[in-house]
Amino acid sequence: MKYFGTDGFRGEAGVVLTVEHAYKIGRYVGWYYGARQGRKARIVVGKDTRRSSYMFESGIVSGLVASGADAYMLHVIPTPGVAYETVDGRFDCGIMISASHNPYTDNGIKLMNGEGHKMDEEVLELIEDYIDGKIEVPYATGDAIGCTVDYMQGRNRYIAYLISSANFSLQGVKVGLDCANGSASSVAKPVFDALGADVRVISNAPDGFNINVDCGSTHIERLRRHVVEQGLDVGFAYDGDADRCIAVDERGNVVDGDLIMYVCGTYLNKHGRLSAATVVPTVMSNLGLFKALEEANITCETTAVGDKYVSACMREHGYSLGGEQSGHIIFGDIEKTGDGIMTSLRVMEVYRAERETLSQLCAPVKIYPQVLVNVRSERKAELDTCEPVQEAIRAAEVKLGERGRVLVRTSGTEPLVRVMSEAETQAEAQEAVDSIVAVVKRELP
Questions:
Q1: Arithmetic mean of pLDDT over the chain
Q2: Mean pLDDT of 298-303
Q3: For FRET with 196, which of 9, 228, 236, 308 sits at 20 to 30 Å CA-CA?
Q4: Hey, how many other C-beta atoms are within 10 angstroms of the C-beta on 200?
Q5: CATH number of the domain that 348 lies in?
Q6: Active site residues
Q7: CA distances from 242 to 58, 99, 239, 262 (A)
Q8: Which of 135, 156, 177 is where one domain is finished?
Q9: Entry pTM
Q10: Is the dihedral of CA 45, 46, 50, 51 positive or negative?
């Protein structure tokens, strides 16, 4: 793919991703779905709070209506809200304008098919060909020109869906929310208010420039302080487009995606709601999660790094829970994609049902110290066939035995070899990484 990566077309606004790109994406998508369906296409569009999102929204919508599609504008909404409404409203596809956890200077365009999943790659390839001028599509004329629809009711339906998914009360529970000055700012608090929680919100005053700035799931320190200082029972931090969630327990300890998968996985399995008694983490999940799940008689089906691989594995096998350490958790039985607010509600379901604090629910998991070193390598493609490196990996694995593990992989976007180790002590993990890094630097410069 030339433009679309694992999470859409993303880059610096006005430099890598321009309004012309947005217009052309709208032009092709509007024409493609209209031509395929033999009728006027209906496409729903959402955005996050960064300044450039309004510019890209205008570009996309102009392209859609110029190609004869009707554009339904959800305005500021989480990415999973667009996925939900695409399916619930029976739209041909959904478009989300967001660069997720990136700084406000970046932006991105994510495309979803009519099932709320990431757009099929063959369609993305056609869009790229149109952007590059390899194919042409006609303009709509006369009454075939599309229209725009102010679709705030779609966002309201999404909020109602989140509330209705929770069959419990949070009366008397003190909850902290860090909305990252992003898409969750107008959605998360109404949901928790409706469930009766005592809600204390921070970072929910977006100004177009402060999205993800020292706040949200990628800067958890602020929420940790907020929870401790306010004496809260639990806290949740979202990223810019609210598809991720990181929790904080009553002591201010971080509860990342691995711990959330453990808390929710063991609870669902206890009640017969964990499909095949299996959780789907990635290879980067902590060894402590794998060992704790094994102790709880839960199987792990591990995938490559990336929520698209987790989602694909879950759909293929019908699994009901998977995710990443970063807080991108998917509950396959009730949603199409990771949803940070839904994740926080599922954690609260366990909290209320088990009548334990979040720190108590996480206690069985022993998180292993982790060391990760990125080694610059122009010859990273030779990693799997370089015998000295493979020998160093095997030697480190033998030395660690059951007390740890190593993971060596290449970056998908940069000339880097990533060397990671987990062990019972920081020193053991560091020693294992150092032994491999030295060989990678020597053999794969």
A1: 96
A2: 97
A3: 228
A4: 18
A5: 3.40.120.10
A6: 100
A7: 22, 11, 5, 21
A8: 156
A9: 0.93
A10: positive
Nearest Cα neighbor of 80 from 437, 286, 252, 337 is: 337
| Residue in 200, 140, 143, 145 with CA at minimum distance from that of residue 170 | 200
Give the burial class of 95: count Cβ atoms within 10 A of its Cβ; 0-12 exposed, 13-18 middle, 19 or more buried. buried
pLDDT in tens, 25-67: 999 999 999 999 899 999 999 999 999 999 999 999 999 999 9
Joined together, the tokens standing for residue 12 give 């610096």
Q: Within this chain, do residues 17 and 44 fall inside the same structural domain, yes or no?
A: yes
The Cα-based distances of 139 to 68, 143, 203 in angstroms read 7, 12, 43
Domain, as residue range, for 68? 4-156
Domain final residue, candidates 342, 362, 382: 362
3-state secondary structure the chain: CCCEEECEEEEEECCCECHHHHHHHHHHHHHHHHHHHCCCCEEEEEECCCHHHHHHHHHHHHHHHHCCCEEEEEEECCHHHHHHHHHHCCCCEEEEECCCCCCCCEEEEEEECCCCCECCHHHHHHHHHHHCCCCCCCCCCHHHCCCEEECHHHHHHHHHHHHHCCCCCCCCCEEEEECCCCHHHHCHHHHHHHCCCEEEEECCCCCCCCCCCCCCCCCCHHHHHHHHHHCCCEEEEECCCCCCEEEECCCCCEECHHHHHHHHHHHHHHCCCCHHHEEECECCCCHHHHHHHHHCCCEECCECCCHHHHHHHHHHHCCCEEECCCCCEEECCCCCCCCHHHHHHHHHHHHHHHCCCHHHHHCCCCCCCEEEEEEECCCHHHHHHCHHHHHHHHHHHHHHHHHEEEEEEECCCCCEEEEEEEECCHHHHHHHHHHHHHHHHHHCC
Question: Are 60 and 145 members of one domain?
Answer: yes
Residue labelled with tokens 């604090």: 357
Are 145 and 66 members of one domain?
Answer: yes
- State the Cα–Cα distance between residues 156 and 27, nearest whole angstrom: 28
Is the four-CA dihedral 293, 294, 299, 301 of positive or negative sign? positive
- pLDDT tens digits, 111-131: 999 999 999 999 999 999 999
- C-alpha angle 123-124-125 in degrees, rounded to nearest 5: 90
* Residue labelled with tokens 């006609």: 138
